[in-house]
Specification:
With 666 residues, this protein is of the alpha/beta class. Among the domains are: 43-129, Nucleic acid-binding proteins (OB fold (Dihydrolipoamide Acetyltransferase, E2P)), CATH 2.40.50.140; 235-263 and 278-401, Rossmann fold, CATH 3.40.50.300; 432-584, Rossmann fold, CATH 3.40.50.300. The chain has 24 helices and 21 strands. Helix 5 packs across helix 6 (194-220), helix 6 (194-220) packs across helix 22 and helix 6 packs across helix 23. The chain binds adenosine-5'-diphosphate and magnesium ion (MG). The site of magnesium ion has 5 residues, from helix 9.
Length: 666
């Protein structure tokens, strides 16, 4: 099952690449790529039963011709359908090929969401289905259409048919009423029934969660010998005293925890979590200063070049006055600058080097690396994190995350890390005022934006990504940019940033906004990660209903960083979810709610590139199963002589071998 994907029919080199980019390299990994949800086609509902907000399947006939009209950049197709008793309009957006396929009378199985449009219940952008029963829906993979993806998974499953060894001891399976593995894999993708699906997912999640928790316990119980950093006892106070502001109590407490780790013989493995703007960077710099005071070099890795530069500038301001030399290593340096950077790191001329992936990919040799800090860690995989620490001789590792993670999930995701929480914002922040703005108030909002810009402030406009397989009435960033530039805000300076731009162009646009040369920055979610422009006071989020709550919270954290009152406008029709967000500024509460509503995988907005596997992702929010497996894992480790327990431990070791090896468990 660990064969490459090229063995599957329908997967050529291009698709293989696309899968690889999504972290899927083998047939096993493809089969473990579990559906995000299922479309229930087993019981189509009569049109009369459709209420606005319902998502359902309907079996209908085209009642007339498909009509098309254009509005701005949208092509709107409309078709009336009937189930014999009732008639209903259906609309699609930007789907020109529908025209030739919708002869009157055509039978259709549609699956989609009913909405109220101009007073009529309307089916919006439904998928035209052909199957029956429960149809899997996968997270979309760039470059692979949804239908093809389904077929690839089906082919992979067929290849593995009957071959999944049931590794869980039978006694354990019986005790917890878990179904057999092959049955589970098949039904997790193409369920025979709702019951079979539930049994399949429970089985897969149980196994993943149990093994993972056993593995984590093994990791935690292994003391990692590491670099001990002996700094003068007054070093923390000296750092705080040199800062232009007084640290919060939370910053002090977290630094004390970090300092104790640095002093001990055990290598630090600590995550600092805190809401956006809570001042994690200052804590990281403090740790770097302590390492320096103890005679060690540090590295700080950020997920983007813009962030790395931003940290570098702060380091020059905050660390160089303390007698440290900071350097920058990013991909866009000239060859000569690269050479000089490598030399400065190797000779120890730089006490701290700040950079991107370049820190691990360029074969940099360090003089005496004692501390590794990674920022916004959820953007990096576990593998990248540990690759950087391999550069030194078991250096101390500090990871910073702005994604507040509910405690239960934290235990699972980062159970091998100690966790510190910066749970306090620096004083003097005015909380961001969040408002839900329906379409009818759009023009008034633009007036507000103009006023803010007139006062010298700047504005973010964020648009959702449009997944390739989707037909939504969401305007992508480019269209919004054009619209603002040519019609709505013609008097303002506007920049655009999106994922398909060349990194250099993207950085340049961000840089212009950061320097205040642009009033408005239209972007996809690339700005989500740590960009700090204190002068930006307004954030407009288009199609806010399409974002997760935790992601919206992260986004609005980009404003409210200066002394001015700040605003976040959620462009959407009001709903309880968005109202909840508008009512609280507590990132942990929001994360908890988001996890309940959408499952843990969505918390991060992007693919969790680390530990959270498909199985866990599917069910890690199931509190009962979490507790069950947690208790069983503890029980297993308490029975070292029991063959069943031994089998599970061996399985956990095998499953997480790579990670075990990284930290020296044997
Ligand atoms: P984050 O936790 O999101 O990484 P940062 O470390 O970027 O937050 O801090 C956000 C802003 O708050 C920065 O401009 C920083 O200089 C400032 N800041 C950090 N700590 C304090 C403090 N104790 N008092 C006042 N301002 C602070
Ligand atoms: Mg930060």
């Amino acid at each position: 099952m660990d064969y490459p994907l090229s063995g599957i029919r329908g997967i050529g080199p291009a698709r293989q690449k696309a899968f690889e980019a999504a972290g899927i390299r083998t047939v096993r990994e493809l089969v473990m790529f579990l559906p995000r949800e299922y479309r229930d086609l087993s019981a189509p509902v009569p049109l009369s039963a459709l209420r606005p907000g319902d998502t359902a399947a309907v079996r209908v006939r085209a009642a007339g011709e498909l009509s098309e009209r254009r509005a701005r950049r949208l092509l709107i197709s409309k078709l009336y359908v009937t189930d014999g008793t009732d008639t209903l309009p259906v609309v699609w957006y930007n789907q020109p090929w529908l025209k030739n396929q919708m002869a009157p009378g055509r039978e259709l199985l549609l699956y989609g969401k009913a909405e109220l449009k101009q007073g009529y219940v309307t089916l919006v952008s439904p998928v035209i289905e052909s199957g029956e029963g429960l149809i899997p829906v996968y997270r979309s993979i760039q470059g692979i259409p949804a239908k093809a993806l389904r077929q690839c998974v089906e082919a992979a499953l067929r290849l593995c048919e009957g071959q999944w060894p049931d590794e869980l001891p039978e006694s354990l399976r019986r005790r917890y009423g878990l179904c057999e593995r092959n049955f589970a894999m098949r039904n997790a993708h193409f369920p025979d029934s709702h019951e079979a699906l539930a049994a399949a997912r429970r089985r897969i999640a149980f196994e993943e969660l149990l093994l993972y928790q056993v593995a984590l316990s093994l990791l935690r119980n292994t003391a990692r010998e590491g670099v001990r950093i002996a700094f003068p006892p007054d070093a923390p106070e000296a750092f705080w005293a040199a800062l232009p502001f007084a640290p919060t109590a939370a910053q002090r407490r977290v630094l004390a925890e970090v300092a104790a780790d640095l002093m001990s013989d055990r290598a630090m493995a600590r995550m600092v979590q805190g809401d956006v703007g809570s001042g994690k960077t200052a804590v990281a710099f403090a740790a770097i200063a302590l390492a320096h005071a103890g005679g060690w070099q540090s590295a700080l890795m950020a997920p983007t070049e813009v962030l790395a530069r931003q940290h570098y500038e702060s380091a020059v301001k905050l660390l160089e006055p303390l007698g440290m030399k900071a350097g920058l290593l990013v991909g866009s340096l000239t060859p000569k600058q690269h050479r000089l950077a490598h030399e400065a790191v190797a000779s120890g001329a730089w006490d701290v080097v700040i950079g991107t992936h370049a820190l691990i990919t360029e074969g940099v040799a360090y003089r005496n690396l004692g501390l590794v800090v990674t920022d916004e860690q959820h953007r990096f995989g576990v593998r990248q994190r540990t690759m950087l620490s391999e550069k030194g001789d078991a250096p101390n590792v500090l990871v910073m995350s702005a994604t507040p993670i509910p405690r239960t999930l934290s235990l699972i995701l980062y159970g091998d890390l100690d966790i510190s929480i910066v749970d306090e914002l620096p004083p003097g922040r005015t909380p961001v005022q969040t408002r839900i703005v329906p379409e009818s108030k759009r023009e008034a909002m633009y007036g507000f934006l103009r006023d803010e810009v007139r006062r010298g402030r700047q504005v973010y406009v964020v648009c959702p990504l449009v997944e390739e397989s989707e037909a939504v009435d969401a305007l992508p960033a480019e269209a919004v940019y054009e619209e603002l530039r040519t019609k709505r805000l013609t008097d303002l300076e506007i920049e655009l940033v999106h994922g398909r731009m060349k990194p250099a162009d993207k950085d340049a646009a961000l840089e212009r906004f950061r320097r205040g040369e642009a009033d408005v920055l239209v972007s996809t979610t690339v700005i989500e990660v740590g960009v700090n422009v204190p002068n930006a006071t307004v954030m407009v989020i288009e199609n806010a209903e399409r974002f997760g709550l935790a992601q919206l919270h992260q986004l609005r954290g980009r404003v409210g960083r200066g002394a001015h009152e700040s605003w976040c406008f959620l462009m959407a029709e009001p709903n309880p979810r968005l109202r909840f967000l508008a009512s609280t500024a507590d990132g942990f509460k929001i994360a908890q709610k988001d996890m309940e509503l959408r499952g843990p995988g969505e918390l991060f907005g992007t693919r969790q590139s680390g530990a959270l596997s498909a199985g866990m992702n599917a069910l890690a929010s199931d509190a009962e199963l979490l507790k069950l497996t947690h208790d069983e894992a503890r029980d297993i480790l308490a029975r070292p002589d029991d063959p069943e327990a031994q089998a599970v431990v061996a399985l956990a070791r095998a499953r997480f071998a790579e990670r075990m090896e990284e930290v020296g468990v044997n």
